Amino acid sequence: MNEPSRNTNEPSQEWKKTFNSTLNRLSNQYLTLLRAASSEMALDDAQIDQRGKRLSLLLLAAAGC
Q1: What is the full DSSP assignment across 27-41?
Q2: Would 7 be classed as within a structural domain?
Q3: Kind and range of the H or E element at 47?
Q4: Structural domain of residue 63, as residue ranges?
Q5: Cα–Cα distance, 31 to 44 (Å, whole number)
Q6: What is the C-alpha separation between 45 and 24, in angstroms, rounded?
Q7: Which three-class secondary structure state does DSSP give residue 25?
Q8: Domain count, the chain
Q9: Each residue of 3-40: pLDDT tens digit?
Q10: Is it the case that residue 61 has pLDDT exceeding 70?
Q11: CA-to-CA distance for 11 and 13, rounded, in angstroms?
């Protein structure tokens, strides 16, 4: 029967390996960016919460409570 030789599959197999490797690398970099952005947002939220708590305490103190 007419079976394709291994040589005809090698370029496509090499392309698939290269593509998968690139895709994995880009996915990992994207996840790293998401984690960094998430951490940065959590820090910002915590700082805002702390400022809000301080402001509440100042308002309570000013009101004489």
Answers
A1: HHHHHHHHHHHHHHH
A2: no
A3: helix 6-63
A4: 16-65
A5: 20
A6: 31
A7: helix
A8: 1
A9: 555 556 788 999 999 999 999 999 999 999 888 888 87
A10: yes
A11: 5
CB-facing half-sphere around the CA of 65: CA atoms within 13 A: 6
To which residue do tokens 């994995």 refer?
Answer: 24
Which token pair is 64? 């004489």
Report pLDDT for 64. 74
Classify residue 4: in a domain, yes or no: no
23/64 Cα distance (integer angstroms): 61
Q: What is the pTM of this model?
A: 0.50
Quote the radius of gyration of the chain (alpha carbons, Å).
28
Joined tokens for residue 20: 């998968």
In a domain, 46, yes or no: yes
Residue 31 to residue 25: CA distance in whole angstroms: 10
Could you tell me how far CA 37 lies from the centroid of its own chain?
A: 7
Sequence length of the chain is 65
